[in-house]
Structure formats: structure tokens, C-alpha cells
């Protein structure tokens, strides 16, 4: 009965929403308890490791002298994975394996049918700070405390890694910069470009985007829209002058298209000028504009 085991405690008591323990054997429970303890212990260390370098500082010197990689070059968090050379990770895994198999004599390797969990999964006989707890109630309390701390550390580590990956900052960097949420403070992976801070957002309308052209768009899209806006604006400034100039200051003398007998004075200062100018004239205009 898994509900009588250590870990079934307040506030959730026995909590098995996926039903792992409904049809499992004692060996299945022991394997999962060994895995839970190991993951919890790793995450307790890892949670400290996410904070320690930024609080107490990194080691001096080189992590990899052959690659001129200093300890100070390694970021705190998930991005350290790509910084450490493969030879470094092999050494870390080797030392961890030796600690587990030789120092703690852990035999919980190989999965079902191969692993051995002993009378109490996760108990390597090292005691509690060098002593063995004789009182059964105290021992159960300490083991429950360790299990719950490990569970909390697994959840905390998942949150720390996800936020670290989304923001690109370590926890201490996030807190010191006020970057508490990766979603709504203008930073991080999900942060959206804020066009309301760009040139053009000014009185009397302020930032005005009635059609939502910049909704969920990035800076590259904004730059493209801004380039189009400027080009259209410059063309229209010149075109606005062109609507008034001929009637105020007169047209050129002579022929616009001698072969067609079309004079400049025959071209109106309205949109109808489009139909007056021959196609060859428009091609020359486009070619000149493109060359400019």
C-alpha cells in the first residue's frame, strides 16, 4: 500500500493523479522512489548552483587552459551547457559515476530486472551528517523533509531553467534588473518589440495603430513598415507640390511627346494626367526613378 509510505503527507496526503501505484509492485515503487530521491537531491544541488556563482562569485583562473576558457566566461544557468567543452562534461560524468558506484555503492542502475534498490531506496548508509537516527519518529520526519525538499527543488529547478532559457539571464540577473516576468516587461524570449517608443508616436494622437499593423510583430517588421511609410510620405510630399505647381507657375513650353503631338499644356493637373501621358513616357519616368 503506497499510501502508507514516506511522502504521503500534508497537504496533499497520498497523491497519485496518473495512477502509477494502482497496479505496480513493490519493486516498481522502490524504483520510482529511488529515481524521485535521486532527482530531488540533484535538483537541490542544482538550485544552489543557479544562485551561488552570482552571489559568491566564480572560481579564479581557467576552466579549460587549452581553450583559454575562464570560469568567469561560463554563464550561470542553462547556457553553461554549451560553454563547457565536451572533455569537461566527460570528466564531470566520470566523477559523478565514480561517486555513485564506488563511494555510495549505488546499485540502482539498469532499470527493471537489473537494478537493486535494497531494503530502503536511496539509503546508501551514510547517515545524517555522520550519525544514524535511532528514533523512528525523528527518522521518518527527516526522510519526509528530504523528500519534500527534493520535490520542491525539482519544481523550482524546472522554473529556474525555463525562465533562464526564456530571458537569457540568470536568476540573480533577473532579480537585480527587475526582470521578474519574461512575458510582459519588454525583455526576454516572448517580449514583443514596442513601437510606441519609436519616432512618430507623438501628440496629439500618441501611438496610433487603429488597424493593428504592429500587433505581435517584431522590430524587423516595424523597420520594413517604417521604410515604406517614409518612402510613401516623401513621394506624396513631392506629388502634393506637383498638384499645385503647374497651375501656379505654369507648365513647360513645347511638346511632351512630339510623336503623339502631345504638348505639356495639354496635360491636366489632376489624376487624369495618368491617361494623357503615353506608356513610353511612364516607362521613362519609372526608369529614372529606379536609377535615382
What does this structure look like?
- The chain is built from eight helices and four strands, in the order αββαααααββαα.
- It has 292 residues and is mainly α.
- It has a two-stranded antiparallel ribbon with strand order 1-2. A two-stranded antiparallel ribbon has the order 3-4.
- Helix 1 (26-56) packs across helix 4 (136-167).
- 9% of the residues are buried.
Task: Report the portion of residues in β strands.
Answer: under 5%
Report the strand count.
4
Report the major sheet: 2 strands, antiparallel
Shape: elongated
Terminal Cα span? 84 Å
Mean pLDDT: 85
Number of helices: 8
Strand arrangement, largest sheet? 1-2
* SSE order: HEEHHHHHEEHH
Show the helix and strand layout.
Layout: H1 26-56, E1 62-64, E2 69-70, H2 80-83, H3 86-103, H4 136-167, H5 171-176, H6 219-249, E3 255-257, E4 262-263, H7 273-276, H8 279-291
Antiparallel strand pairs: 1-2, 3-4
Helix pairs in contact: 1-4
Task: Provide a compact summary of the structure.
With 292 residues, the protein is mainly alpha-helical. It is 48% helix and 3% strand.
Fill in the keyword field for this structure:
4 strands; mainly alpha; two-stranded antiparallel ribbon; two-stranded antiparallel sheet; 292 residues; single chain; elongated
Amino acid at each position: 500500500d503506497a499510501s502508507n509510505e514516506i511522502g504521503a503527507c500534508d497537504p496533499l496526503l497520498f497523491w497519485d493523479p496518473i495512477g502509477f501505484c494502482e497496479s505496480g509492485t513493490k519493486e516498481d515503487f522502490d524504483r520510482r522512489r529511488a529515481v524521485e530521491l535521486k532527482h530531488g537531491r540533484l535538483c537541490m544541488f542544482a538550485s544552489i548552483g543557479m544562485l551561488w556563482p552570482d552571489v559568491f562569485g566564480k572560481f579564479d583562473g581557467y576552466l579549460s587552459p587549452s581553450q583559454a576558457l575562464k570560469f568567469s566566461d561560463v554563464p550561470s544557468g542553462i547556457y553553461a551547457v554549451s560553454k563547457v567543452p565536451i572533455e569537461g562534461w566527460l570528466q564531470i560524468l566520470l566523477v559523478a559515476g565514480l561517486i555513485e558506484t564506488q563511494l555510495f555503492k549505488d546499485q540502482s542502475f539498469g532499470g527493471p530486472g537489473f537494478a537493486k534498490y535494497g531494503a530502503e531506496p536511496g539509503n546508501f548508509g551514510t547517515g545524517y551528517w555522520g550519525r544514524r537516527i535511532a528514533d523512528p519518529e525523528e527518522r521518518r520526519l527527516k526522510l519526509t523533509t528530504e523528500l519534500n525538499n527534493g520535490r520542491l527543488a525539482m519544481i523550482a529547478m524546472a522554473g529556474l531553467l525555463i525562465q533562464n532559457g526564456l530571458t537569457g539571464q540568470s536568476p540573480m540577473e533577473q532579480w537585480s534588473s527587475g526582470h521578474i516576468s519574461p512575458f510582459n516587461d519588454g525583455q526576454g524570449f516572448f517580449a514583443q518589440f514596442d513601437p510606441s517608443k519609436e519616432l512618430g508616436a507623438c501628440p496629439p494622437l500618441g501611438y496610433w495603430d487603429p488597424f493593428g499593423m504592429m500587433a505581435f510583430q517584431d522590430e524587423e517588421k516595424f523597420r520594413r513598415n517604417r521604410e515604406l511609410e517614409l518612402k510613401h510620405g516623401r513621394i506624396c510630399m513631392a506629388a502634393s507640390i506637383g498638384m499645385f505647381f503647374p497651375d501656379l507657375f505654369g507648365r513647360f513650353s513645347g511638346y511632351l511627346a512630339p510623336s503623339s503631338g502631345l504638348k505639356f499644356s495639354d496635360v491636366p493637373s489632376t489624376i487624369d494626367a495618368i491617361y494623357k501621358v503615353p506608356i513610353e513616357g511612364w516607362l521613362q519616368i519609372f526608369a529614372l526613378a529606379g536609377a535615382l
